[in-house]
Amino acid sequence: MRVTFIGDSITDAGRDRSDPDSLGDGYVSLLAPDLIAAGATVRNLGIAGDRAADLASRWESELLPTAPELLTVYVGVNDMWRRFDSDDPTTAEDFEATLRPLLERVVAAHAPRLILMEPYFLPVTPAQAGWLDDLDGKRAVVRRLARDFDAALVPLHEVFTGAASARPLSELAPDGVHPTPYGSRLIADAWLAAASISDSR
């Protein structure tokens, strides 16, 4: 099985982009050994800082040639973040208008099983709590796309919010976004749970 992950820094996780076999040191690297042992080939196409529009710019040249049979898409937090650090917002409507055609294209070309990852954010400062309103729109889009494409959904915002009720942010994602090794394990476990649900359909 050909397994591809595409997304932003949480997927990238420091991979060597000059090496197609490099998986970084995040959740993809935790999932890969079992996938490879089961006979899969695994590609990590994460790029730090990517938004939905960035995925669109490399969908044809980087994603489609991998001909994925199982595709995980994880994007959205930078579409929120750029509104607040660069005054460059992406509306939920634009976010969906970019992502939906990408999924349509890959389904038409390769009919992969899809796993969509919900973006998460843990506010570090009181001011950042207001950012969640923007993220909520992107989360709703990912959930709607998961329903419309019969994709497995990984509810990461719920996972991390729940974990943050019992652990300090420093153990999960010190800046609210980039996971610690423990945070990466949470993502990998949530992916496995979603993939298992998808397998049972």
List keywords for this structure.
Rossmann fold, 5 strands, alpha/beta, single chain, 8 helices, five-stranded parallel beta sheet, hydrolase, 201 residues, SGNH_hydro
Please, what is the CATH homologous superfamily?
SGNH hydrolase
Number of strands: 5
| Unreliable residue stretches | none
Largest sheet: 5 strands, parallel
List the helices and strands in order: EHHEHEHHEHEHH
Q: Share of helix among residues?
A: 40-55%
Strand order of the largest sheet: 2-1-3-4-5
* The CATH top-level class label: Alpha Beta
Organism: Microbacterium hydrocarbonoxydans
Pfam family, one: Lipase_GDSL_2
Protein name: GDSL-like Lipase/Acylhydrolase
InterPro entries: Ester_Hydrolysis_Enzymes, SGNH_hydro, SGNH_hydro_sf
What does this structure look like?
By secondary structure, the chain is of the alpha/beta class. The chain has one domain: Rossmann fold, CATH 3.40.50. Helix content is 50%, strand content 11%. It has 8 helices and 5 strands. It has helices at residues 9-12, 27-37, 52-63, 77-85, 92-110, 132-148, 156-164, 181-199, and strands at residues 2-7, 41-44, 70-74, 113-117, 152-154. It has a 5-stranded parallel beta sheet with strand order 2-1-3-4-5, with helices on both faces. Helix 6 (132-148) links the parallel strand 4 and strand 5. Helix 2 crosses helix 8 (181-199) and helix 5 packs parallel to helix 6 (132-148). The model has no long low-confidence stretch (mean pLDDT 96). Keywords: Hydrolase. It holds the Pfam family Lipase_GDSL_2. GO terms for molecular function: phosphatidylcholine lysophospholipase activity. It comes from Microbacterium hydrocarbonoxydans.
